[in-house]
Structures are given as structure tokens and as C-alpha cells.
């Protein structure tokens, strides 16, 4: 009866020819296909194929070869080749979860031969066990049938080889005999592995934490015993009762790349108990209860019912901007910009000059003045003009010094590159006041429009946090933008950065470098800053250090060079949520004037939070080069948790109130090590928003 089932299965899997006839044949298959493993079938020239049918036939041929090679690699216990195949082919291309003619999947072979490394690699790639094994009895019967039929085939071939005279047919039968002997040994090893296996132990550890006011995060670890069969899935169960009766829910986890699960849809303020059990080919093992024994979904905002700080702010700002635009809709500022009345002589001179210079152009050299340059980069290439110059336009040739307030205003304008024309028109109306500040800002808007028009690009990117100044009186404001796609432009072209730097060195004066020379010398640092300032933190709860220093016209904030859009920080834990109980404990500690006790008198979850916080404070003090004994005077900001979306949150560590902001000329006895910089506060705020 089982033999008939096997024949039916072979017919159903007729599209999968049998594998190589021997281990040596399998090795030859690897050698022949080794070059093909590294090239996807779509990379071949399909233009020479005749018709769609031929293309599909070739595609299936390559997919079959990769699938057969994976089976052989698992059977030969070749971990390196298994990993190579999983790396170069997707789950669908490998046909990873379709049984072969013996009703087996690669994962079945790996776990029944107890090859844990290969089994883990397959599980992380998404492999599953064969659906034919619905019970222990069916698996045992299937393995017994495979062993019996392989043994029968070996005996038949043995008799034929012994009784036949030496010939080519006899030589072929000897090869088949060796192949079937090898397969017979494989099936016996699989059967023995199954018979000696036992159900897995409980997971070695289960930890629960409060993920939000309606969810718990469960993290668990593999059973500690190393002599068991490979675990292929886990089951998470939860209940309001410590006896788990009644059971409120369960979830089976068969994607084992990360051993964690988030239970959603829970009731805030209700205590939940959680346990986890492991599964292998012998069934489910005993459950492991979580530590702490229960958790209550909550969020720190429930402590005083506080609403999120940013709720509705973006919508309110959009509405406000819309109202401003509506008010100006019928204003004169929406008429085309008109030049100021000029004398006839100047107009004639300008018109004659216009005959020889039909339009605005990029500047080649700098005079004493204020300029705008835009750096667009892709990999190691940068956009330059046809004269191999970085695009530069003039803002004001009579501007001798850049006021910080004008520069910071321009950084805010960089959030509205698409609105430059509208801003120009509105500022034009205000020019009647003859304000020097408004005139300078109007010239900045004109320069931006000119740069956008010459490049044909609206978005000029992010303004670098400080202008470049040279001894000749030039001031250069730099914008930076990374281009992700291969774009072509009419007035500029791509060149390697190193080539541009080399050509510039040959014509520049090292004694008195201009602002452009200084830009090219430091361009790699500026590009690195721009890339790092767009990086996001991985999810978690962080401890940030707020340190300010003031100057005459600005306040600057200390940030790490590796992530300049975030305060100096260390990660406390991967869970960004602070529960109500943890926040209550923090409030109590903030109100106590004595030093924090070594161990808080609280439950296990609060004790765990205290330990995590202690470790983070020590790590942060070391990072910013502050002796640990000084930390006793530092304070945790206890007014709120700073939430950045749903995945990142911050607690702030503040120096003593007199040291939060260092005044001009004031000594800071604890200077951070290298790897930090100070940004103008407004620049930092814009970077954080981005």
C-alpha cells in the first residue's frame, strides 16, 4: 500500500527528474554548475532564443538544476554549498518547499540526519517541513518504506552484477549499485535519527516586555540542550490566568531568523501571563513560563493622561501656510517681478551686454562677496559645469560678512525649495522698507532661483552647517544632495571627485587658498557629514546627553560625528516603550534628593529597567569623557519621554543646571574625545526633522 502511495507521488512529481545516480555524479554536477550558480538565468542573452516557450523552458531548466543541486548539497552535508545556493537564489527559484520524488524536502533531510547547521540555514531562508508527515506514524512508515525499497533495489542490482558477464551494461549497473547503496545508507541514517530523537526541552529563557498600551513583546531563546533534534517552530501562548486556563490566544512562529513575537490587541491595564514551547519532528516540548511572570500593557503617557507633543502639529502648520497663501492670492506680490527703475544709460549698457551674454552663467572665479554653490554627488562622482567647475552663483558682490541670522534663515528656506518663486514675490513687496536684511534675503532667493534654473533642478538639498570663508573676503554657502538614480543634465556633467581635486590643485595657490580650493579640499568630509546626517537610528530606547555652548550670536549643541542629526547617545534597550510602572518609578526617583539606591525596591520589571539605565549611564559618561563620580550631580529629564515616531524614544541626561550651557569664555573641564562636533541649534533642529 505504501509502495503504491510512493508510485502515485512519483507520478505527481514527474516534472522533477531523479537526482544524480551517485555521490560522484553529484560532485560532477556541482563542478559543472559552479559557474552558473553565480549568474541568474535572466542575465543570459535571451535574444537568441526562439519564442516565449523556449525562454520558459530554459528558465525551468536552470531552476531545476539549482533545486537538484540544493538537494544533493543537503544529502552530502555540504554546508558551504548550501549557503552559496541560498545566497544566490531566492526561495521561489530554489523551489525550496516543493517535495521531491521521495516526498522529502531539503529541511526534512537536514533534520532527520540531525545536521543542525544546515537545518538552521534552511530555516532562516524560509524552508518548511514536508506536509506529508501529518503524524509521527506517517513519518515512521514513510522512512521504513524508503529504507525497504532502497534495500530491495540494492539486492536486485547486486544479483544482476554478480550473475552477468563483464560488459558495458554491467559497468553501468555497478554504478547504479553504488548509488543505491549510498542512498540506502542515507535513508537508514535518517530513520535512525528519527527513532532516537525526542521532543525538545523548553526554551532556555523567555522574556516579556511592554511594547505599548495594547501589546507585549516576547523574546525567547533556543533550548539549552545541544543533543536534541533541530527545533523547527515555536508556540507562544498567553492568558490572564497563571494556570493558562482559559487560554486567550496562541501563535506559531516558523520563521526563525529572529526569535521574538509581539502580541497585539491586548487590553491596557490588564495583567497577561505568557509561555513558549518548542517543536521538532517528534512533537511539542514542555512550555517555559516568562520572566517576569506577567506584564501589563501600558505607556508612560497614561501616568498623567498626556497627549503626544506633535499630535496635529504638521497638519496645523500646513493649514497655516495655506491661509498665508490665500491671503496673498490677489496681492501684487503675485504679479511678475519687476526690476527697479534704472537710468537710460545703465539700461542701454545692460542691454548691449546682454547681446554677448544671452543668459546667466555659472561663475568660474570668486571676487570679494557672498556666493552659493550646489554639490550633487553619486557614489564617487560629482556634478560639475562644462568648464569642470563646481556650480557657483553670486548672491551679493558687496556683502563683506555673513550675519548668522541670514544664514540660519537660508537653512529654513531649504525646507521649501519648491516655494522659492512665491517667497521671492512676497519679499519683493516688502523691499519698500529698504531693510538691509530683506534686501540680502531677497538676493539669496534670486541666487537660489538662478541655480535652480541653470541646473534644471528644484531641490538643491541640505545646507551645510557652516559657510566657507577665505582670506580674500569670499563667503561660500554650500548645499549638498545625493542623487540616487542615473540622471543626465544639460548644463552639467558627472566627473570623479579625485579627478576634480587633482585638476584644481594644479591651478590653485597653496599659500592663499580660495573658498573654492577649501571646498574641494574638504569635499569628502562634507559628503560624509551629509550621508551620516540622513542615517536613522535602529528601533529602541536611548539615553541622550544634552550639552549646549553659547556664543555671541548663536547656541550650539554637542553631537557625534557619526550621527550628527542626533544628540550624543547610547541605546538602553531594543524596546522603545516605557511602561506606566517604569515611568512612575522614574518620577519617584526624580523626587528623591538622596543618591539613587543600588537596588530599587520594586518588582522585577522595574529592577530590570533600573539595571539597564545604570549600564547606559556608565557607557554614556565614558563616551563623552566625564568621570563617573561627576554623574551623581547629573539629572534625568523627568518631564517627558522624547518620542521620534513609534520606534525610537529618548530619555535625556542633563548636566547640573549651571553646566547645561557653557557661556563664552567659560572653561569646560571635561572635553569630549575626538568624534564629536557642535552644530548651531537651528541646524540641529532641522537635521532632526529631516
From TrEMBL:
Instruction: Name the domain of life this protein comes from.
Output: Eukaryota
What's a BP term from Gene Ontology annotated to this protein? Answer: regulation of establishment of bipolar cell polarity
PROSITE patterns in alphabetical order: FN3 (PS50853)
Query: Which residue numbers delimit the Fibronectin type-III domain?
Result: 202-299
Q: Which SUPFAM superfamilies match?
A: Ankyrin repeat, Fibronectin type III
Query: Which stretches of sequence are listed as region Disordered?
Result: 1-25
What CDD domains does the record tag this protein with?
Answer: FN3 (cd00063)
The protein here is known as ANKF1 protein
Q: Which GO terms describe its cellular component?
A: spindle
Amino acid at each position: 500500500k505504501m509502495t503504491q502511495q510512493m508510485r502515485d507521488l512519483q507520478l505527481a512529481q514527474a516534472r522533477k527528474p531523479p537526482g544524480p545516480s551517485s555521490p560522484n555524479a553529484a560532485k560532477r554536477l556541482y563542478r559543472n554548475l559552479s559557474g552558473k550558480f553565480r549568474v541568474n538565468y535572466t542575465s543570459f542573452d535571451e535574444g537568441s532564443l526562439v519564442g516565449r516557450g523556449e525562454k520558459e523552458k530554459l528558465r525551468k531548466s536552470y531552476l531545476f538544476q539549482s533545486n537538484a543541486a540544493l538537494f544533493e548539497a543537503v544529502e552530502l552535508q555540504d554546508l558551504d554549498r548550501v549557503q552559496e545556493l541560498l545566497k544566490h537564489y531566492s526561495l521561489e527559484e530554489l523551489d525550496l518547499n516543493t517535495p521531491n520524488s521521495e516526498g522529502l524536502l531539503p529541511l526534512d533531510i537536514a533534520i532527520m540526519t540531525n545536521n543542525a547547521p544546515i537545518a538552521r540555514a534552511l530555516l532562516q531562508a524560509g524552508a518548511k517541513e514536508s506536509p506529508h508527515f501529518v503524524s509521527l506514524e506517517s513519518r515512521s512508515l514513510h522512512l521504513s518504506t524508503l529504507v525497504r525499497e532502497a534495500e530491495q533495489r540494492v539486492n536486485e542490482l547486486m544479483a544482476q552484477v554478480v550473475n552477468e558477464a563483464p560488459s558495458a551494461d554491467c559497468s553501468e549497473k555497478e554504478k547504479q549499485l553504488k548509488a543505491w547503496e549510498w542512498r540506502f545508507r542515507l535513508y537508514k541514517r535518517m530513520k535512525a535519527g528519527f527513532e532516537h530523537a525526542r521532543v525538545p526541552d523548553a526554551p532556555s529563557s523567555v522574556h516579556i516586555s511592554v511594547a505599548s498600551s495594547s501589546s507585549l513583546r516576547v523574546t525567547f531563546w533556543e533550548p539549552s540542550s545541544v543533543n536534541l533534534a533541530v527545533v523547527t517552530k515555536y508556540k507562544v501562548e498567553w492568558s490572564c490566568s497563571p494556570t493558562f486556563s482559559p487560554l486567550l490566544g496562541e501563535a506559531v512562529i516558523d520563521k526563525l531568523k529572529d526569535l521574538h513575537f509581539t502580541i497585539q490587541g491586548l487590553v491596557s491595564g490588564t495583567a497577561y501571563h505568557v509561555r513558549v514551547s518548542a517543536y521538532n519532528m517528534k512533537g511539542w516540548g514542555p512550555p517555559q513560563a516568562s520572566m517576569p511572570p506577567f506584564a501589563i500593557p501600558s505607556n508612560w503617557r497614561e501616568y498623567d493622561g498626556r497627549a503626544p507633543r506633535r499630535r496635529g502639529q504638521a497638519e496645523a502648520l500646513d493649514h497655516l501656510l495655506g491661509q498665508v497663501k490665500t491671503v496673498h492670492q490677489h496681492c501684487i506680490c503675485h504679479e511678475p517681478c519687476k526690476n527697479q527703475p534704472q537710468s537710460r544709460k545703465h539700461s542701454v549698457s545692460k542691454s548691449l551686454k546682454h547681446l554677448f551674454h544671452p543668459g546667466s552663467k555659472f561663475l568660474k572665479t570668486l571676487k570679494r562677496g557672498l556666493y552659493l554653490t550646489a554639490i550633487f554627488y553619486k557614489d564617487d562622482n560629482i556634478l560639475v559645469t562644462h568648464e569642470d567647475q563646481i556650480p557657483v552663483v553670486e548672491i551679493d558682490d558687496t556683502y563683506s560678512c555673513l550675519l548668522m541670522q541670514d544664514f540660519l534663515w537660508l537653512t529654513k528656506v531649504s525646507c521649501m525649495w519648491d516655494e522659492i518663486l512665491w517667497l521671492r514675490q512676497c519679499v519683493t513687496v516688502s523691499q519698500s522698507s529698504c531693510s538691509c536684511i530683506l534686501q540680502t534675503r531677497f538676493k539669496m532667493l534670486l541666487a537660489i532661483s538662478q541655480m535652480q534654473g541653470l541646473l534644471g533642478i528644484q531641490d538643491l538639498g541640505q545646507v551645510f552647517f557652516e559657510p566657507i570663508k577665505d582670506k580674500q573676503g569670499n563667503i561660500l554657502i554650500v548645499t549638498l544632495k545625493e542623487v540616487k538614480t542615473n540622471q543626465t543634465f544639460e548644463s552639467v556633467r558627472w566627473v570623479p571627485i579625485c579627478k576634480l581635486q587633482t585638476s584644481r590643485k594644479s591651478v590653485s595657490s597653496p599659500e592663499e587658498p580660495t573658498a573654492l580650493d577649501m571646498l574641494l579640499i574638504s569635499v569628502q568630509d562634507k559628503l560624509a557629514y551629509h550621508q551620516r546626517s540622513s542615517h536613522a537610528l535602529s528601533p529602541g530606547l536611548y539615553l541622550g546627553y544634552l550639552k549646549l555652548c553659547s556664543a555671541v550670536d548663536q547656541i550650539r549643541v554637542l553631537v557625534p560625528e557619526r550621527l550628527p542629526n542626533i544628540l550624543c547617545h547610547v541605546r538602553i534597550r531594543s524596546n522603545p516603550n516605557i511602561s506606566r510602572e517604569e515611568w512612575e518609578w522614574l518620577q519617584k526617583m526624580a523626587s528623591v534628593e538622596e543618591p539613587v539606591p543600588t537596588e530599587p525596591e520594586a518588582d522585577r520589571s522595574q529592577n530590570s529597567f533600573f539595571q539597564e539605565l545604570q549600564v547606559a549611564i556608565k557607557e554614556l559618561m565614558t563616551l563623552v569623557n566625564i568621570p563617573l563620580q561627576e554623574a551623581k550631580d547629573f539629572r534625568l529629564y523627568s518631564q517627558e519621554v522624547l518620542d521620534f515616531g513609534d520606534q525610537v524614544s529618548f530619555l535625556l541626561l542633563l548636566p547640573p543646571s549651571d553646566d547645561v550651557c557653557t557661556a563664552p569664555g567659560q572653561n569646560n573641564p571635561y572635553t569630549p574625545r575626538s568624534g564629536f562636533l557642535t552644530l548651531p541649534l537651528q541646524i540641529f533642529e532641522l537635521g532632526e526633522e529631516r
